[in-house]
Design goal:
The chain is an alpha+beta fold. The chain has five helices and 16 strands. It comes from Kytococcus aerolatus.
């Protein structure tokens, strides 16, 4: 990605952005191999617990596991690179919920707006995003061919527990680790859009009810994904 890339406001956006080749094929293969070798596979759960009618998957929550640290770091880096592009397209991802200011060498303070974001380097956008957002825990998931899936229409924000951690989810991201199957798209309800999995691609979308979605059943092959969120810092 080039620095100081000028942002272009999309026409009639649906705020669902797909970034091809965000992960290398080799990284995808490493993650799937580590998943299959891991003794920590568990039935996938939703906010209400394990319910295979809502979500039928095998998951590993890799965050906090030492053996996953290097692969997790590569996933976070890939998602962060995509977030830079997302912010260039939708600068109000950051500047609508929060007000940022820039102090010039002469002491002049100005508000950071979409025009200034368009002139920022990638690293400056990463730093700005880091002041507002933090990476969430990462799940690696396998949906078994012809039976698994996440058919329940859901969003990512919910009052799950007293910590209200899930209410801090600002954007979701999903990385597709393979594509040797049919169907199995990520389907967004109100946008009437299906994102077809392509190995190495990563999708970012808002986490609120406006982007209610589901994971359709893969046909003819298992489906592997990595999923997480960008969350607001606690205040």
């Amino acid at each position: 990605m080039s620095a100081a890339t000028e942002s272009t406001r999309p026409t009639n956006p649906d705020f669902i952005e797909v970034y091809p080749d965000a992960l290398s094929p080799e990284l995808c293969d490493q993650i799937m191999a580590a998943f299959e070798a891991s003794p920590h596979q568990r039935p996938g759960a939703t906010g209400g617990g394990v319910n295979k009618e809502m979500k039928d998957s095998v998951d590993i929550h890799i965050t906090g596991r030492p053996e996953w640290q290097a692969l997790e770091a590569q996933l976070v880096q890939a998602a962060s690179r995509c977030l830079v592009q997302y912010v260039r397209t939708y600068p109000h991802t950051l500047i609508a919920p929060l007000v940022f200011q820039h102090q010039a060498p002469d002491g002049t303070v100005t508000r950071i707006d979409e025009d200034r974001i368009a002139q920022m380097s990638d690293q400056e956008i990463i730093d700005l995003a880091g002041a507002a957002l933090r990476p969430g825990g990462i799940n690696i998931q396998r949906y078994t061919a012809d039976s698994g899936g996440y058919p329940y229409w859901h969003c990512e924000t919910m009052p799950k527990d007293s910590s209200h951690e899930s209410l801090h989810r600002h954007c979701l991201w999903t990385a597709y680790l393979n594509d040797e199957f049919e169907e199995g798209a990520t389907e967004f309800l109100y946008q009437d859009r299906k994102v077809e999995p392509k190995k190495g691609a990563l999708v970012i979308a808002p986490g609120a009810f406006t982007h209610t979605h589901r994971g359709n059943r893969p046909v003819g092959g298992d489906k592997y994904i990595a999923t997480s969120w960008f969350l607001f810092h606690r205040r």
